[in-house]
Amino acid sequence: MTVANGREFLSIPGPTNIPDAVLQAMHRPAIDIYSGDMVDLTRTLLEDLPRLFRTSGRVFIYAANGHGGWEAAVSNVLSRGETVLVLESGVFAVGWGDMARMLGIKVEVLKGDWRRAVDPAAVAQRLAAGRFVITAEVMPPVSCNPDDLTAKALPLRGLADAVNVTDGASARAHMSAMAAAALLIGVGIEPILQLTCRDRNRIALQGEPMPIFGDGRQTRAFPIRH
Q1: Would the pTM count as exceeding 0.85?
Q2: Number of Cβ atoms within 10 Å of the Cβ of 102
Q3: Which site from 49, 118, 145, 153 is most exposed, i.e. has the minimal number of CB atoms within 10 Å?
Q4: Backbone φ and ψ of 165, nearest 5°
Q5: Interval 178-191: pLDDT, tens
Q6: Which of 163, 169, 221 is nearest to 199 (CA)?
Q7: Residues 9-25: pLDDT tens digits?
């Protein structure tokens, strides 16, 4: 006989567990995806998103997991035939390289040891042999003080072409990624902004980016990850 104590709870970094309130709200009949409210909502989203992201190009909406976010980021930042350097430091680094290769990007791999940090001298030597775009990553601080962010980011100015600003790392409250991106722009650093769908509804995802675009500021990439 099997005796279950409580219900199963997934305790891994992702996918995120769905709150009970959301599960209860989903307990309703499926709607028709070919007519009615769904079609009207999709039409308005396709009309509004180009204005939000300041593009005259056609916008596509698709549902995906985190790897879908990878694909979107690589597609938005790189073109077929361009070259990227992958630092073999773990399964995610290798996965980014595999994704880029599938999308027609030339991938160079700097071999490494998954148990040790990447050798900075080896990276410098490889970069000196060709032109690569260099990015770094900054986690917004668990603080309201902008100096805590700039202290992390300023050493990267002039070394990295752009800096990834993570959002809600480790499912903890940090300084807003949007505010952090604006602060980086203010000190002359190009941000690559990440927004996590996990903790925002559709209205929040549409509304939060408006201030940073509304005052003329721009970001070169805008991946939205789950």
Answers
A1: no
A2: 11
A3: 145
A4: -110, 110
A5: 888 888 888 888 88
A6: 169
A7: 777 766 677 888 888 88
